[in-house]
Amino acid sequence: MRKTIGGGLLVALLTANAVQAQQVTYDEALNAAVSDQPLVRTSELRLEARREVADAADELPDPRIRTGLRNIPITGPDAFDPVMMTMFEVGIEQEIPNLAERRARAGLASADIEWAAAELSHARHMARIGAGQAWIALAFAQRSETVASEALVEIARTVPLASSSVAAGNARPGESLEVRRAVLEVEDALTRIQAEEEAAQARLARYIAIAHATASGEIPSADVDERWLRSILEYNPEIILADAQVLRAEAAVDMARSELRPDFSVGASYGVRDGQYGDLFSVMGTVTLPLFRGRRQEPRISAASSEAASARQARADMLRALEARFEEDLAAWRSAYRQWQRATEEMLPLAESRVELERASFAAGRAELLDVIDAIKALALLRIEILNREQATVAAAVNLRLTYTEHER
Prior knowledge:
By secondary structure, the protein is α+β, with helices and mostly antiparallel strands. About 65% of the residues lie in helices and about 10% in strands. Belongs to the outer membrane factor (OMF) (TC 1.B.17) family.
């Protein structure tokens, strides 16, 4: 039993370390996931960048300065000698895109903002899901560890009973070894639980930047509102992201159509000639002529329209996939909930009654020590299994609420 005592000391040390670790509630984990998450911060910075650049989307292009020598003869008797029309010219030119193009650029910038905002919402959405699932795993690992530790203590109490039974001749010496075998089985379960707890801490640290957090506070409810969740599927962050992609594609169509309209430019220049001639001032304007639409603008419009149609179909397919995944997750939650109820309401009372009956039978000399030990071990393992089923139920409920709830609209 030295190993049993050592196992008890190990559990005590682990419990003391857990007390010293930073405690985090479920709501705190969700809130920290969207404030301490680098991926979320990346999306926030991207949104800020889109907003800053949007103000310049419909501005006119920068004007151009033009300078140089004009009308220098290179042949004939006046080759490379200034003549009346030779001048040093300085000018400025401003391109003026058509109004439809400027509006399309503004619309495209606005669509980029919507897409960046949807991407931020989706990043926060995924961070909440990850943090919530990790917290649930950690909380139930801690509870399972407590149950397994209590089971070790309960089994250890049968040691004096086994020793006295062997001494009195009521049990064979080999039967006392069953106590040790039962302890080993529960210790194996405890080792697995502790590994799951460490893994859950590592996953939670991915979202809240706390290396060795412990879950505290109430466990989230295992119930869900099916009708309400189903009614808001269209506002899911994944669908909002798809809507933003459709908006960007439609803005690209407007941008392509704006090429059908002519663009303009205006310019002014001042020419300095030889002293015997007067200086010159010129004003010019240009207009683009989209004469070959069938080979230039219309193919780009057609391609942009196809991309927009593709984005709309992708959005419809994503909604169907989301609805199918929701029904699958809902079915998994129902199954887990029924299994948890069945284990709690039917299997647990049977196991507890068996322990009481085996103890009474052993005291009356109608049962063997092995039966008592096996009943205690079975009850301990069942309690761990019930916690696993409860975890599966709560995790399924949390997954439904976090995955399919409207977070930001």
